[in-house]
Amino acid sequence: MSARCVRQLLLISSSRLDGYEPLEFVANDINTLLKKNNVSTVLFVPYALKDYDTYLSNTKNIFSKWGYEVEGIHKSANPLQAVRNAQAIFIGGGNTFRLLKTLYDNQLIDAIQKRVLQDGIPYLGSSAGTNVATRSIHTTNDMPIVFPKSLQALELVPFNINPHYLDPDTNSTHKGETREERIVQYLEEADAGPVLGLREGTWLHVEGIKATLKGLHAARLFIPKKDAMEYESGSDMSFLLDNDWIHKCKQ
């Protein structure tokens, strides 16, 4: 069996959604995934924000209501060992460049890949945590406040995601570039691949070689040299996990 056949991912656009408590809208899927894997403690990676302790405290408040302990990776004397011992990993939002740089600085890329793609522990990503789970962070919305050694990310899936995807506001007088225009600029690059635009309140559930779009809204898929397409919640997105299809769609 391929190592990637054991992956279990929830890649969420954002933890916050108007009208809901943090992560409340995806709570059922989170609990189903963690309970199925007998998870009692989640390793939280707060590297996307500067104040690790406050971020950890807020995350503990969310998960404790569901009966889980949360450990902050920054509290460990050996972050690498913390990943190796983790029952599940949650990487939260913030600045994607800061997050990826810190993952590289702590030499955690290979370790997280192994735990998720080979050992099959659950991976939860929100916003920046979703960005770094993909092929690269080329399509993040964040400012490059720091520079990671590479824009290549964890590659838990072989395509990119744009969390917080926004549709153009037809009533706005703002003349700046739309989110779609910026993604299209990325697609013009020779090595670009598909980009899934996740609107708020949506997430991608990946189990092995199966991917399902879930949540409150449709998502928008951008493919090099193709017209963008809309996919409703509940759509089977497993074709995005096929590296051969991704290669073909760029021809």
UniProtKB/TrEMBL annotation:
Keyword presence, Chloroplast: no
Reaction catalysed by this enzyme: Dipeptidase E catalyzes the hydrolysis of dipeptides Asp-|-Xaa. It does not act on peptides with N-terminal Glu, Asn or Gln, nor does it cleave isoaspartyl peptides
Main EC class the enzyme belongs to: hydrolase
Keywords assigned: Cytoplasm, Dipeptidase, Hydrolase, Protease, Serine protease
One GO cellular component term noted in the UniProt record for this chain: cytoplasm
InterPro entries cross-referenced by the UniProt entry: Class_I_gatase-like, Peptidase_S51
Biological function: Hydrolyzes dipeptides containing N-terminal aspartate residues.
Name this polypeptide is given: dipeptidase E
Organism whose genome encodes this protein: Popillia japonica
Classification of source organism: Eukaryota, Metazoa, Ecdysozoa, Arthropoda, Hexapoda
